[in-house]
User: Fold this.
Amino acid sequence: MSQEKSTAYQKEPLSIVVIGASGDLAQRKIYPALFALYCQKLLPDVVHIVGFARSEMSNTDFRTKVSRNLTCRYSQEESNEAAIKSFLERCTYVAGQYNEAESFRQLHKELQHLDPDGAENRIFYMSIPPFLFMEVAHALKAADLVNRAENRGGWTRAVIEKPFGEDRQSSDELTSSMGQVFTEKQTYRIDHYLGKEVIQNLMVLRFANMVFDPIWDRASIHDVRITWMEDLSLEGRAGYFDEYGIIRDVMQNHLLQMVALMAMEPPVSLFSGHVRDEKVKALRAIAPVGLNDIVVGQYSAGAMKGKQHFGYLDEPGVPKDSITPTYAAAVLQVNNRRWDGVPFLIRAGKGLSSSMTEIRLRFREVPGNLFKDATGHLSKNELVIRVQPDAGIAFHIVNRVPGLGMQLAESNLNLRYESAFQTKIPDAYESLLLDVVQGDKSLFIRADELEAAWDIFTPILHTLAKDRIKPEPYTFGSNGPASADALAARFNVKW
Ligand SMILES: NC(=O)c1ccc[n+]([C@@H]2O[C@H](COP(=O)([O-])OP(=O)(O)OC[C@H]3O[C@@H](n4cnc5c(N)ncnc54)[C@H](OP(=O)(O)O)[C@@H]3O)[C@@H](O)[C@H]2O)c1
Assistant:
């Protein structure tokens, strides 16, 4: 997002350490994203990628494991096999214990062996369960892997994955204890939604087009709706999901980031600090969600695409009395001059009828509408920003049907990314990893942004747990609980 990105790419030698390299995220997302950057020559010429985890594996076994997920859309100049071979030659593996400084000293030795004269520019990507973050951070520090680089003209960057805590207090504790090891400047909190192409375009859409800016407020916009839905269940992550639930897993991070980008004022410049200042201001203007502002649901058994699915409580690994929501819908009020009275309705759920993410802005009725009789049954203007699948932007307008007589119909101005742009859309992790390499922090969550986001949801999360509020059941494969429609209807909105 920042202009810094389009200038010279990082050319200094670089080591990227993936901690938790044996895991799902590393194998499915991080290594393929690094490979895509490598194929596009966006990594420095001297780059070493070192995997670290407890599992015992030789370099050869590790490379075989990594190679299973490597496909690259960008290796035009050489065959994919040649690119894979040369990429894998740069990948090595060190087995060790996450809480042992000695294991990280071995890692240090490996890094020095790989690049004895380098400036020690290093990225540590913590692709591990969050309860391990602190012990790894302390072990890295004890092995002199954090500050040594800075003292020798290099840099250290630590990437951490959500969830960043479970509420405001635990998030503050994590920030403060990570702060004992890494400075805020060294910390990159990743929310992969911010790397998605359409999300990266939101600021461009709003601030580079004169047509939207004057109507982007309470005078013209009736409501904003953001939907995140999945037709999947737990995908083998019952332990994680039952502890966190949909509010912590999706709403507090991905959806609030989209709200912030939709609601924020124009930043002074594209400098990452300025962008994040405006996002924080927008989040701070949102009142904490109360019990009256939210609906929580949990899927029950149902059939979809000819397949019968368990209800949440019958999923392997889920306690029979779990009150973890698999669905939530909430209304947010952004209490500032621009948005006063405009409901921001957000919903997220698993086990629904389809998988998609989109943002919809509905505009107000045309005052004194000349065509009232003809348009009465038509929907209002709506801007639809489709994040996934089929990334694109559509504008619903009312149009005269060509022919004799006055007949009006809804039509779409449609920008479909796939057909409009002759370029491949990079995966969100490619984009974000390139930003880490470049040191561009615009798309990473700053500590105060995280605080503001937790302040919106922490009180309701505590109430739901303390009062053991049972989520409303909805059938797997449906559109969610009926009360979510009633919540939207209170604001004269249909999802
Ligand atoms: N997977 C995703 O799609 C996804 C999406 C968004 C965010 N995240 C976040 O990204 C991070 C990594 O996710 P992941 O799905 O890759 O995790 P994972 O596969 O469960 O764990 C990564 C590695 O950590 C080690 N590990 C796992 N459980 C451990 C335990 N109880 N004690 C010690 N080591 C353990 C394992 O390596 P060894 O046994 O070899 O040490 C494992 O290969 C997590 O913070 C997760 O919340 C993941």
